[in-house]
């Protein structure tokens, strides 16, 4: 038992290496700012019940200016109220839950579909590659929003349908990136070694190739998360998002945009909220890229 | 070169065919559904049957698809359910309006993006470079549906209140074409799009600045301006050409949001209206037009890139 333990060279656990890798982001201040914004919104979403001063759908005095007093005279609506008298701050706080639930879920699903497709196309090549690449080209030839509108208009608007639409529209892009990485990695010596050992193809793809492609993929995932947040917001804005009355940032903007010339605050704060979250992911992606290029 | 162009155009036609098949299957495979969407929910089965019979919906699927494609190629997409006129009649003026909007947006986004990208890439790592990079990340993080209300609040609400000058908040052009109403929509599109062009141009410029021929040109004592203009720019601007062409695909998405927000009567708002009202023939027409524009610009980008890049052109 002990002999065996000695003969195995010391190797840090996968988790520890991941944490150490993630800690590199400290070297990029842009990345740190991005991370701080994301952590801020994650905490807001997690503790929405505690930090929100009002229930998200409770109504009070409508169209109150920021800082106005509530119905009972003592409570304060820090960001004012919307056209139905709902507290805007509380709705933004609770709206962060929708975004931070559906955006990562949709991105994850898109990766779950796109990565195996890209691995298969890049590793097997030949007819598999031709077919998968052609499918990807067809889907990518749609202007993204046109694709979303057609899908949502056909299958209906709901949380799960948004996830399906995002998966369908994003997986081809992910596939292309993975395919490109695999085409490069499949000619490495450790892949030839594994092939010589007789490892099955799925094992070579998942264990030998995929972990070595993680760098660019993590950066892409960050950028894509930001983009999916924009997409979900856009769908909400166009009236194709999550059904009312639960708060959704995109929907909050569209509901209040007709009052923009009289009460601009009602639309401005959700705009700032969603932009800041997207900015967080984009900055983090930029920081990660910078750090990963350095070594 | 000719073979290459022919092959690219062949791929383009094939893609269009597959897209049309997908659209057709998605929207018209359920014959009963088509009848309900066209005639309305409050019609009897008999009425629907007669309509379907008259319009040849009981023919075999391949025949129906062939007929549909044949009509689509000559621009006949049927009659819009919502507007009660042939689809092409409403589609053409809307496409023209959007082309005007898109042209100005693309022009300004490209000009600003290229300029910033070049001056940032000239001195990689300088303060100016970092400012442009971070600045373009910030502007591309503000989605169109957020920048539209923000800019509206500024130009339609706060500025008129403080300095007495502002911009109109809608672009419905209800009393004829008006340039002033075009400013805000174009501004929103440019703000979102120029950052990506700037970043790509910067990357391309920075790469060129690292090459040996630039070092040689600098070392043999050419003025810096000449090196940039004659040696660097011509090579650095090949990649951004592709980026700008592909940007048209993204612009089409942004156009939908902007036209919806500013009530601009263009192609994007038409597509959205068609989808929300289940106006299937109009959806089909709009989607085909959108995909055609996207695929055509992609093909042009490929051909243009090959033409501009001598290393590929002469091999």
Automatic annotation (TrEMBL), chain A:
GO terms for cellular component: plasma membrane. InterPro entries: BP-dependent_transpt_permease, MetI-like, MetI-like_sf, OppC_N. Its main location: membrane. It is found in: Cell membrane. The chain crosses the membrane at residues 29-48, 99-119, 131-153, 159-178, 221-242, 262-285. This is ABC transporter permease. It comes from the Bacteria. Keywords: Cell membrane, Membrane, Peptide transport, Protein transport, Transmembrane, Transmembrane helix, Transport. GO terms for biological process: peptide transport; protein transport; transmembrane transport. Belongs to the binding-protein-dependent transport system permease family. It comes from Pelagibius litoralis.
UniProtKB/TrEMBL annotation, chain B:
Residues 95-301 form the ABC transmembrane type-1 domain. It comes from the Bacteria. PROSITE patterns: ABC_TM1. The chain crosses the membrane at residues 12-31, 95-120, 132-159, 179-198, 237-262, 282-308. GO terms for biological process: transmembrane transport. It is a multi-pass membrane protein. It is found in: Cell membrane. It comes from Pelagibius litoralis. This is ABC transporter permease. GO terms for cellular component: plasma membrane. InterPro entries: MetI-like, MetI-like_sf. Keywords: Cell membrane, Membrane, Transmembrane, Transmembrane helix, Transport. Belongs to the binding-protein-dependent transport system permease family.
């Amino acid at each position: 038992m002990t002999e065996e333990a000695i003969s195995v060279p010391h190797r840090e656990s996968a988790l520890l290496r991941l944490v150490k890798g993630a800690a590199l982001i400290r070297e990029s201040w842009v990345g740190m700012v991005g991370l701080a914004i994301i952590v801020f919104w994650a905490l807001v979403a997690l503790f929405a019940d505690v930090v929100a001063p009002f229930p998200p759908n409770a109504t009070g005095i409508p169209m109150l200016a920021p800082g106005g007093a509530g119905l009972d005279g003592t409570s304060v609506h820090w960001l004012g109220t919307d056209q139905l008298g709902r507290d805007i701050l509380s709705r933004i706080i609770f709206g962060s839950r929708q975004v931070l639930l559906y955006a990562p879920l949709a991105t994850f699903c898109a990766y779950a579909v796109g990565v195996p497709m890209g691995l298969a196309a890049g590793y097997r090549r030949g007819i598999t590659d031709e077919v998968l690449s052609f499918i990807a080209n067809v889907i990518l030839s749609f202007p993204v929003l046109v694709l979303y509108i057609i899908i949502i208009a056909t299958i209906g608007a709901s949380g799960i349908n948004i996830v399906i639409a995002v998966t369908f529209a994003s997986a081809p892009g992910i596939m292309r990136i993975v395919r490109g990485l695999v085409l490069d990695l499949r000619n490495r010596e450790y892949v030839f070694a594994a092939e010589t050992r007789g490892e099955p193809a799925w094992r070579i793809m998942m264990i030998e190739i995929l972990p070595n492609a993680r760098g660019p993929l993590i950066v892409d995932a960050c950028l894509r998360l930001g983009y999916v947040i924009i997409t979900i917001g856009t769908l909400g804005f166009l009236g194709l998002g999550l059904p009312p009355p639960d708060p959704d940032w995109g929907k909050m903007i569209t509901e209040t945009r007709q009052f923009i010339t009289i009460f601009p605050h009602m639309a401005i704060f959700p705009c700032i909220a969603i932009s800041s979250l997207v900015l967080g992911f984009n900055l983090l992606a930029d920081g990660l890229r910078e750090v990963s290029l350095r070594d | 070169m000719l073979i290459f162009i022919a092959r690219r155009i062949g791929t383009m036609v094939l893609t269009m065919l597959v897209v049309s098949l997908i659209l057709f299957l998605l929207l018209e495979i359920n014959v009963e559904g088509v009848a309900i969407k066209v005639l309305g929910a409050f019609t009897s089965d008999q009425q629907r049957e007669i309509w379907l019979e008259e319009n040849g919906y009981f023919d075999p699927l391949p025949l129906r698809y062939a007929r549909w494609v044949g009509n689509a190629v000559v621009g006949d997409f049927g009659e819009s359910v919502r507007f009660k006129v042939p689809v092409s009649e409403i589609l053409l003026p809307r496409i023209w309006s959007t082309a005007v909007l898109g042209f100005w947006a693309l022009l300004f986004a490209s000009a600003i993006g290229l300029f910033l990208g070049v001056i940032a890439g000239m001195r990689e790592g300088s303060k100016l470079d970092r400012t442009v990079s971070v600045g373009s990340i910030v502007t591309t993080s503000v989605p169109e549906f957020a920048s539209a209300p923000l800019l509206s609040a500024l130009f339609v609400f706060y500025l008129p209140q403080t300095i007495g000058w502002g911009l109109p908040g809608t672009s419905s052009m209800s009393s004829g074409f008006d340039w002033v109403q075009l400013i805000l929509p174009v501004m929103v599109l440019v703000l979102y799009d120029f950052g990506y062009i700037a970043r790509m141009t910067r990357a391309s410029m920075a790469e060129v600045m690292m090459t040996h021929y630039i070092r040689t040109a600098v070392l043999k004592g050419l003025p810096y301006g000449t090196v940039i203009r004659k040696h660097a720019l011509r090579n650095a601007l090949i990649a951004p050409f592709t980026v700008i062409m592909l940007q048209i695909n993204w612009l089409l998405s942004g156009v939908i949001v902007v036209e919806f927000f500013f009530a601009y009567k263009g192609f994007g708002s038409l597509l959205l209206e068609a989808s929300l009202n289940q106006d299937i023939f109009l959806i089909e027409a709009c989607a085909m037009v959108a995909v055609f524009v996207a695929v055509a610009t992609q093909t042009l980008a490929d051909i243009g890139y090959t033409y501009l890049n001598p290393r590929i052109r002469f091999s």
